[in-house]
Write a structure and sequence with these properties.
The chain is of the alpha/beta class. It folds into 2 domains: 277 residues, Alkaline Phosphatase, subunit A (3-Layer(aba) Sandwich), CATH 3.40.720.10; 85 residues, Gyrase A, domain 2, CATH 3.30.1360. 34% of the residues lie in helices and 16% in strands. A hairpin with a 3-residue loop joins strand 11 and strand 12. The longest helix is centred in the C-terminal third of the chain and has 32 residues. It binds zinc ion.
């Protein structure tokens, strides 16, 4: 490839370079040393300034980065009570196929108490229970004197201490939808998601999924939603009824769950969204095996007239009627497998103290133990709600889609970190929360923005300039320190004419 210079360029930097190129036919013949050898210090400075100016002008011409494309839709699915180690104990081929193409977090550290309502609200707010106010699946509010139960959860007053993502995303111009997620059929801040299904346990997974796919697709009148949540009651229901150690029952329930995951994947493929939508599959808590041999009876320690019982097991919430201290002392020595806490003494790590709905005394049963008021009847063979440091209480996290890396596994993550992760995927500014995006970053696909390209370009040119300058300085220092530096100076002095073809420099 021939390189030609136009003779009319009368710039001092060009002439020495011309001398090189005139003697070289092919680019491969030109060496950096030749170029360096041809340039004096002043010329080198000029070259550097020229390149710097070019870089600045180029950067200025790029202007502000082009607007980002809209984020892919995000589907968040919760299979209630999916204990993390079910993944190791049961086949789950569809779920494994899903996260083999994406990411898996083997255990999520969820929030205390490890019940359904607190944890589902934490997933979509990034807040601990004491911060979002849904402190249990059964609650009492001392201000309003109201009681909350899963079957009577539609009073908006309970949900106002936080704002779930399906509401916050509306403010970013995103359309959202919810299918049976706890709290999603309640007006929060006088708003609901763009679409929602009132809770009805009789609606099948296929029917719920049918709504989800329609919402994602949109229609002639309205565009598809960008964020949708989907809730399913299993394997929690079977876990409570038969206990998580019942392999026969759990195998059947988890086969159905896995079939539902397969149905979800095939439906997303059928409508052309698989691979174009980010899908998160997770849960709220695990499940512990209970036994009639592990009962704690409150009546053995305290007459029921002394307190009101708001929640029973495995975290009992009590409102003493009179002497709180005396009630606490009786309960504190009640049973070796139950720990009593005054509200002010609940361990900081549980993040379960600073809310008026947390009652003056709570009793925490050890794993697998059940608190009852009296009798020998075990209400259920499986339960959850225990200390959130127990692996049996942990769910898992799996995800796939354009926002996630492929084939990545992590051992653990906090469930409150999922909220900032979802906000990042949706480009929604998160509300104040207890989570962090940083622990979840290894799950995310690398993103290359226009700003990144500009930064890389600037860095490359900057490094090139630096190396060029260093090479010149190094060569100049060598010349100064070499034994024939005197003759070098003499030669340079005698060849001060840029147009001289004598080529006496740097030989
Ligand atoms: Zn649950």
């Amino acid at each position: 490839m021939l390189i030609q210079f136009k003779p009319r360029w009368n710039i001092s930097i060009v002439n020495p370079l011309r001398k090189i190129f005139q003697n070289k036919t092919f680019l491969t013949e030109i060496k950096t040393d030749d170029i360096l050898a041809s340039l004096s210090g002043g010329r080198m400075f000029f070259l550097g300034f020229f390149l710097w100016s070019f870089t600045e002008v180029t950067a200025a011409q790029q202007g502000p980065p082009p607007p980002s494309p809209p984020p892919p839709p995000l589907l968040l699915v919760s299979f209630d009570g999916f204990r993390a180690d079910y993944l190791k104990r049961f086949p789950m081929p569809n779920l494994k196929l899903l996260y083999s193409q994406g990411v898996l977090v083997q255990e999520l550290t969820n929030v205390f108490i490890t019940k359904t309502f607190p944890n589902h609200y934490s997933l979509v707010t990034g807040l601990y229970a004491e911060s979002h106010g849904i402190v249990g699946s059964s609650m009492y509010d001392p201000d309003s004197h109201k009681y909350f139960h899963p079957s009577s959860d539609l009073d908006p007053v309970w949900w106002q201490e936080a704002e779930p993502l399906w509401i916050t995303a509306l403010d970013s111009g995103l359309r959202t939808a919810t299918a049976m997620w706890p709290g999603s059929d309640v007006t929060i801040g006088n708003r609901t998601a763009t679409h929602f299904l009132p809770y009805n346990g009789a609606v099948t997974f296929r029917q719920r999924l049918g709504n989800v796919t329609q919402w994602l697709l949109g229609n002639d009148k309205e565009s598809g939603v960008k964020f949708v949540v989907l809730y399913w009651e299993e394997p929690d229901r079977t876990g409570h009824m038969f206990g998580p150690e019942n392999d026969t029952a759990m195998s059947k329930a988890l086969k159905e769950v896995d079939d539902n995951i397969g149905l979800m994947m095939s439906e997303l493929k059928r409508i052309g969204l698989w691979g174009r939508v980010n899908v998160i599959v997770t849960s709220d808590h695990g499940m512990a095996q209970c036994s009639p041999e592990r009962l704690i009876r409150l009546d053995d320690c305290l007459h029921p007239d002394n307190y009101t019982l708001v929640d029973v097991s495995p975290v009992a919430a009590l409102v003493p009627r009179q002497d709180t201290e005396a009630v606490f002392n009786l309960l504190n020595d009640c049973h070796a497998h139950m720990t009593a806490y005054m509200k002010k003494s609940i361990p900081e790590r549980l993040h379960y103290r600073n809310n008026r709905r947390i009652q003056p005394i709570i009793l925490l049963a050890d794993e697998g133990w059940t608190i009852v008021q009296r009798g020998d009847h075990l209400p259920q063979l499986g339960d959850h709600g225990y200390d959130n440091s127990l692996p049996s209480m942990h769910p898992f996290f799996a995800a796939t889609g354009p926002g996630f890396r492929g084939g990545v596994e992590m051992s653990e993550l906090k469930s409150v970190d999922i909220y900032p992760l979802m906000c990042h995927l949706l480009s929604v500014t998160p509300r104040p929360n207890n989570g962090s995006l940083e622990p979840a970053r290894p799950l995310l696909a690398a993103q290359c923005t226009a700003g990144d390209v500009s930064l890389v370009f600037t860095l490359v040119v900057g490094v090139a300039l630096f190396l060029l300058t260093m090479a010149f300085v190094f060569r100049w220092v060598c010349r100064c320190c070499s034994p024939d530096s005197t003759s070098f100076q003499r030669l340079q002095t005698g060849d001060d004419d840029d147009d001289d073809d004598g080529g006496g420099l740097f030989h």
